[in-house]
Amino acid sequence: MSAEARVERLAAERSSEVFGRSVEGRPLRAFAFGPENAARVTVVLGGIHAMEWIGVDAACALAERLAASPPSDRRIWVAPLVNPDGAASVAADLAAGRRRFRRANARGVDLNRNWPTHWTAARFGTRLVPFLGHSGSGPASEPEVRSVLEALDVMVAAGSTIDRALSLHSFGRMILHPYGSVWRRPHRYDEHRRAAEALQSSIDGLHYRIRQSSRWVPGAFAPGMELDHLHERYGALALLVELGSGGLQVRQPRTWVRPTRWFYPPDSEEEVARVLPALLAFTAAASEP
Ligand SMILES: [Zn+2]
């Protein structure tokens, strides 16, 4: 099932809010659980990158669980597919048998380099590898990012605090925390570590490594990430989870040339099932003392 179809199936079953439109006019949907006027809010984002459908699956599965047992002490706001145009291009590639890397939105912008915190125009790497996408014409230049920010700002204006944020990507079995754009440690570094460790230890039977995003690959700084902005602008304890080990198998050359498989391997459902309870505990702040 395509990422878009997964979200639309959920939207047919549950009430959702269209909080904006993509460049090509696709709806940006969010599903919210818990009291509307809750003082604290968790934000969950999925599908920022075009091919990373496992994150969309995980966000939808999370929403289904939250619908079955909503939190009583916080609001959890889930936007499972932030880049629907990118996901639709991947679906079209699959249908046509094209093997292509895709990451960006319809304007070629990497939506995870377009957030205002530490945004920069220049990205050396994108000139070498165009599919990576560029960072946009300015901070939050893209409707997908701007719509998320507007939705969050409405919550903040209503008096809520966004104190937790989770963004779901693939792949690498990593739990990343801020910053992605600078080497220095985030505010409340220990708290981020503890939350990441709690998440790590509640993943059933799989090992996810923990890193500060900017220190994963030393020297590879990522300005304009959601992780940094959610932390810096809203003060959220922010984690990014790279789901799955990837579908590239060294001994199976067929998998080398199927980029979609790398980011959304056939065993994604099993991976989501194992990680889901840990994601649920983090979003509901169940790990807090
Ligand atoms: Zn990603």
Question: How would you portray this structure in words?
Answer:
With 289 residues, this protein is of the alpha/beta class. The chain has a single domain (3-283), classed as 3-Layer(aba) Sandwich (Aminopeptidase), CATH 3.40.630.10. The protein is 37% helix and 16% strand. It has 10 helices and 8 strands. It is globular and about 50 Å long. The model has no long low-confidence stretch (mean pLDDT 92). The site of zinc ion (ZN) has 4 residues, from loops.
Topology:
Layout: H1 3-13, E1 17-21, E2 27-33, E3 40-46, H2 53-68, E4 75-79, H3 84-96, H4 124-128, H5 143-157, E5 161-169, E6 174-177, H6 189-201, E7 209-212, H7 226-234, E8 237-242, H8 253-256, H9 259-263, H10 268-283
Helix pairs in contact: 1-2, 2-10, 6-10
Number of strands: 8
Helix and strand pattern: HEEEHEHHHEEHEHEHHH
* Reported CATH architecture: 3-Layer(aba) Sandwich
Outline type:
globular
> CATH-wise, what's the superfamily?
Zn peptidases
CATH top level assignment:
Alpha Beta
Number of H- or I-type helical stretches = 10
Mean pLDDT equals 92
**Count of separate structural domains:** 1
As residue ranges, the low-confidence spans are none
CATH topology: Aminopeptidase
* Strand order, sheet with most strands: 1-2-4-3-5-8-6-7
Termini separation comes to 39 Å
Q: Which radius of gyration do the C-alpha atoms yield?
A: 17 Å
Query: β content, as a range?
Result: 15-25%
Helical fraction: 25-40%
Structural class: alpha/beta
Q: What about the largest sheet?
A: 8 strands, mixed
